[in-house]
Amino acid sequence: MALTNKLRYFPTTFAWGVATAAYQIEGAATIDGRGSSIWDEFSHTPGKVLSGDTGDIACDHYHRYPEDIALMNHIGVTHYRFSVSWPRILPDGDSHHINAKGLAFYDRLVDTLLDNQIIPAITLYHWDLPSELQIQGGWLNSRTSDVFAEYAQIMVAVLGDRVKQWITHNEPWCTAVLGHLTGEHAPGVTSKDAALTAAHHVLLSHGKAMMAMRSTRNDLQIGITLNLSQVYPDQPSVESIRAASLQDVFNNRWYLDPLFLGHYPEELIDIFGKQPQFLSHDMDLIKQPLDFLGVNYYSAQVVAPSGDNESPWPVRHVTPKDRITAMGWPVIPKGLTDLLMRLQRDYGPIPLFITENGAAYPDEIVDGRIHDVDRIEYLSDHIEAIADALAHGVDVRGYFLWSLLDNFEWAFGYSKRFGIVYVDYTTLERTLKDSAQWYGRLIHDALSLPLNPV
Ligand code: GBH
After folding, report:
1. Does the structure show a pLDDT above 60 at 57?
2. Residue whose CA is at the smallest distance from ligand 1 atom 7
3. How many Cα atoms sit within 13 Å of 109 on the Cβ side?
4. Distances from the Cα of 196 to the Cα of 174, 279, 281, 391, 409, angstroms
5. Dist CA 105 CA 111 (whole Å)
6. 169 is in an annotated binding site
7. pTM for the whole structure
8. Is the peptide bond before 46 cis (omega within 30 degrees of 0)?
9. Are the C-beta atoms of residues 204 and 176 closer than 8 Å to each other?
10. Any known ligand binding at 230?
11. Is 134 annotated as a binding residue?
């Protein structure tokens, strides 16, 4: 297989990990003083999540984390990316009341990981805003960015001696667009103005948190994770190229430009009818140098002009649908190579981590086994795409597979399975899928090959 020949491009220091997020796996929603989050409220609102699923129990990782870490150890991953549930730490969204039992959970989790020689990487915000902060306006209120910085500082003070890799936000685009424009995600707001404001306050909170974390410790690697999607024009016409560049502004540059260049792309006005409003000092906070950029990559998009001047959206998707996952997303591994090369060219050089990549497929358990050949092919093709970027000199430092476990897939509830470990939601029993065995072998092979650049 082609990938085997390319394993030599991965340095022996490469991070081979898996990723999860608190609300998607932990459950224990009312245990040990955890407060409510916007996702508790959203999932308990009829009609918001498929089949009325909630994260109340999820994979019960809160109680079963020793078993899950044993699984990771068995697979042989070197790193684990997880997120902290903000409402477990600040149940009423106020840093005057810190929940010691919440901190104790992450303390145990980190120690158990380290006992198993697994290096932890922490995401501070993977979408579970404390409900009390939402009542005060959530990401539409700039004060939320101050509380986020306090929360970040608390976490670093408690875990910074053992956890060195920190990610402030997971996918600000999703918070802004899915949470505040389309309303598919919590808090379910649908307004262009709200999306622009939420995005800005998320970026601002990232900047403030970086300052607070750096003032607490100077030995941390701090970054942010963006969901980035490579965009191609359907044909090399002026109109299609313009459509692709507008879609690229919307997917990618809306976040990349402020973080790396210190300004928003001018074309936001063509999408939102106006530019984000903010204080000039905000940009100084947002553009602070990052130690790394986290990249979540699932798919690419092919676009054409909408051809309808009345349409509020100037771009039409013509993405091929021949090879799609259970989410309906097309499988385009080459988009990852192109994206990584582009990041290096336009914003680099900067250390990059693939903080999520993976796929949902309709897995079936047959005689206790899950032969998820489509997932193995997806993963293999994308890891090969990373090897191609490494061969071109792009500084990719690690890969976190989404996800360790089947879990609560947001608005799709438990209907979509992204795990390399199957979860039976009745018994909560875990079963390794073939992809888990495959990934374990791959890690073993990658780490035992001598680094031999060609
Ligand atoms: C991530 O978000 C989340 O971080 C994670 O919690 C979640 O479980 C996981 O992905 C799986 O969904 O227009 O067809 O090219 C994913 C963000 C944004 C990725 C929209 C796919 C559209 C695909 N997604 N994007 S397409």
Report:
1. yes
2. 409
3. 26
4. 12, 14, 18, 38, 25
5. 10
6. no
7. 0.97
8. no
9. no
10. no
11. no
Nearest to 190 by CA among 198, 182, 178, 199: 182
> Which of 402, 404, 417, 418 for mutating ligand 1's site (highest number of atoms within 8 Å of CB)?
402
Decide: 387 and 3 in contact? Cβ < 8 Å: yes
User: What mean pLDDT is reported for the chain?
Assistant: 97
Domains of the chain: 2-448 (3.20.20.80)
Helices 373-391, 434-448: axis angle to 10 degrees equals 30
The pLDDT-based confidence of 319 (bands split at 50, 70, 90) is confident
Report the pLDDT averaged over residues 256-270: 97
**C-alpha distances in angstroms, 423 versus 275, 352, 406?**
45, 31, 6
Tell me the one-letter amino acid at 89.
I
| pLDDT single digits (tens) 129-149 | 999 999 999 999 999 999 999
Residue 98 Cα to ligand 1 midpoint, Å, equals 32
Ligand 1 atom showing the smallest separation from residue 360 Cα = 11
Q: Does 128 sit in the ligand 1 pocket, CB within 6 Å?
A: no
Q: Token digits for 324?
A: 């799609």
Give the DSSP H or E segment for 423.
Answer: strand 421-423
Residue 104, Cβ neighbours under 10 Å: how many?
13
pLDDT, position 406: 99
* Predicted confidence (pLDDT) at residue 89 exceeds the cutoff of 90: yes
Three-class HEC string of 94-143: CCCCCCHHHHHHHHHHHHHHHHCCCEEEEEEECCCCEHHHHHCCHHHCCH
Task: Tell me if 409 CB under 6 Å of ligand 1.
Answer: yes
Ligand 1 close to Cβ of residue 407 (< 6 A): no
**Distance from the alpha carbon of residue 412 to the mean position of ligand 1, in angstroms:** 12
Q: Which two tokens stand for residue 269?
A: 């006005």
pLDDT tens column, 97-113: 999 999 999 999 999 99
pLDDT at 320: 84
Can you tell me whether residue 305 is helix, strand or coil?
A: strand
Mean local confidence (pLDDT), 68-81: 98
CA of 380 to the centre of ligand 1 (A): 19
For the record, the structure tokens of 49 come out as 């999540």
Which residues participate in catalysis according to the annotation? 171, 356
Contact present, 436 and 420 (Cβ < 8 Å): yes
Residue of 295, 294, 313 whose CA lies nearest to 304: 313
Residue range 4-53, pLDDT digits in tens = 999 999 999 999 999 999 999 999 999 999 999 999 999 999 999 999 99
